[in-house]
Each structure stands twice: as structure tokens, then as C-alpha cells.
Amino acid sequence: MKNTNKISALSALFASAVLSAALLPANPANAGELLKDIAVGAAGNTVGGALLGNGSTVHNAIGGAATGAVVGATHDKKKDNSVGGILQDAAVGAATNTLTGVVLGNGEAGNNAISGAATGALVNVTK
């Protein structure tokens, strides 16, 4: 199997695992919010990756979708409907996108952290 086929298969597997893990515990009332977070994350990280010249567009979109899902999942809507602080979401976004970049072999870790932090903050602002 060629390396590109392995990367594509791993990317698809990782994306489906992240989306499955994010969507399964979501109750129907929050599913729309989670999908919005995933879409905002994918778009934001794609733009961030392009601005930094870091990684591929597809991998940046996958990393952004994962970042949006994780940042959205860290908000506890059941307790007091509060939205996590923007610094918390930026930190969660940086960590998630860095890890996703390592798994996908996408770009440089520092640029992934920067783009992930910006994506996490963007998801926070759109809440």
C-alpha cells in the first residue's frame, strides 16, 4: 500500500472516530450546536493553515473539525449554560490541533498550535 493511501485511510478513520465520539453522547438538542462548532472549526483552521502556509487543506480541515468538536464538548451546558473562557478554549484548541497534526503528519507542531488556538477562540466567539 502506498504511503498516500495509508495517510488517506488513517485520515478518514481518525475523522470518523472523532465525529463518532463527539456525536454519540450529544443529545438531540445540542447536536446542531455541535455540528456548528465542527463547521466553524474546520473553516477556521483551514484559513489559519493557509495563512501560515502549514500543511494540507484537507488535513487542516480535519484538524479544525476535531478542534471544534472538542472545544464544543468541553462546554458544560447542563450546569449553568456558561461558555468556557476564551483562554481555555484557545488552550484546548491548541492542544487538539497539535495532536491532530501529529497523528495526520500535517505541518509543523508550532504552527498547528497557533492555528488551533485561533480556531478554539473562534469557536468560543461564535457561541
Explain this structure to me?
It is a single chain. This protein is mainly α. The chain contains five helices and no strands. It has helices spanning 3-23, 28-52, 57-73, 86-104, 109-125. α2 (28-52) crosses α5, α3 crosses α4 (86-104) and α4 (86-104) packs across α5. The mean pLDDT is 81.
Which residues sit in consecutive blocks of at least 5 with pLDDT less than 50? none
Helices and strands, in order, run as HHHHH
Average pLDDT: 81
Number of strand segments: 0
Give me a quick take on this structure.
This protein has 127 residues and is an all-alpha fold. It is built from 5 helices and no strands.
Q: Which structural traits does this protein have?
A:
single chain; 127 residues; mainly alpha; 78% helix
Topology:
Blueprint: H1 3-23, H2 28-52, H3 57-73, H4 86-104, H5 109-125
Helix pairs in contact: 1-3, 2-3, 2-5, 3-4, 3-5, 4-5
